[in-house]
């Protein structure tokens, strides 16, 4: 129910909910849990029905009865749970390490500029990164030690909006004490400039351009941007 009213359930331009398919991943965990529990609930409800299909007073058995029967025999729950945890760690840890070794080494799921940034960020750790893209997870780095923030202005009642001027943008960047600025759109949009306005607002003597692949520019900051120096 929460997924139905969340913005990601049909994200995209007006009348073009292109994010519906990718947004299904937020619904998947709830569906998996629900489908896993459904047989247990149905079994207990069927056991609680008397003759003629009329439900008895006690529809569900006590929680202690769940998961204790296997082939008609009582199963000790604690040793079984411990064995399951140990098995999960023994199998999952090497799989996780293998996944982390190659994660985002050759990304190809976003716009060319973002793919280049994702590959480069996998080698960066412990940095403060300002960005204008909503595709942020790879920016946290392989060890998840980078601090990544979407640049915006807080407003009353939970409002959060993107800056609309060079001065405002630079004030927010200076206040965040960032080491890198990633000015990018989420995708290449035909008919629009190759880079967002924030890329031009960042340019200056204290911002070294380290990558420029549409729709993304990356700057290494060497000092404050100085809002008074805006055109």
Description:
The structure is a single chain. This protein has helices spanning 2-5, 20-23, 28-47, 77-102, 112-121, 166-176, 197-202, and strands at 69-70, 73-74, 128-131, 147-150, 153-155, 159-161, 180-184, 207-213, 216-221. It has 231 residues and is an alpha/beta fold. The chain has a five-stranded mixed sheet. The chain has a two-stranded antiparallel sheet with strand order 1-2. The protein is elongated and about 75 Å long.
What proportion strand?
15-25%
Please give the radius of gyration in angstroms.
26 Å
**How helical, in percent, are the residues?**
25-40%
Order of helices and strands: HHHEEHHEEEEHEHEE
Oligomeric description of these chains: single chain
Write down how many β-strands occur, each being a DSSP E stretch of 2 or more residues. 9
**Low-confidence parts lasting 5 or more residues at pLDDT below 50?**
59-64
Terminal residue distance: 48 Å
Count the helices. How many?
7
Largest sheet: 5 strands, mixed
Alpha-beta content class: alpha/beta
CA-based shape: elongated
> Mean of the pLDDT scores?
83
Name the strands of the widest sheet in spatial order.
4-3-7-9-8
């Amino acid at each position: 129910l929460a997924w139905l009213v969340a913005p990601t359930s049909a994200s995209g331009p007006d009348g073009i909910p292109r994010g519906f398919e990718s947004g299904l991943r937020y619904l998947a965990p709830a569906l998996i849990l629900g489908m896993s529990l459904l047989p247990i609930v149905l079994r207990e409800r069927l056991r609680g029905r008397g003759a003629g299909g009329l439900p008895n007073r006690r529809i569900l058995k006590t929680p202690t009865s769940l998961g204790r029967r296997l082939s008609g025999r009582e199963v000790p729950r604690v040793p079984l749970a411990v064995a399951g945890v140990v098995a999960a760690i023994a199998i999952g840890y090497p799989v996780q390490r293998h996944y982390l070794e190659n994660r985002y080494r050759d990304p190809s799921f976003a716009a060319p500029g973002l793919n280049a940034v994702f590959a480069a960020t996998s080698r960066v750790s412990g940095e403060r990164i300002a960005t204008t893209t909503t595709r942020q997870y790879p920016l946290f780095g392989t060890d998840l030690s980078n601090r990544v923030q979407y640049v915006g202005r807080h407003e009353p009642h939970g409002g959060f909006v993107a800056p609309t001027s060079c001065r405002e943008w630079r004030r927010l960047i200076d206040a965040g004490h960032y080491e890198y600025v990633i000015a990018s759109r989420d995708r290449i949009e035909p008919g629009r400039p190759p880079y967002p306005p924030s890329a031009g607002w960042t340019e200056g003597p204290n911002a070294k351009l380290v990558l420029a692949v549409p729709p993304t520019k990356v700057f290494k900051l060497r000092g404050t941007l100085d809002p008074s120096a805006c055109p």
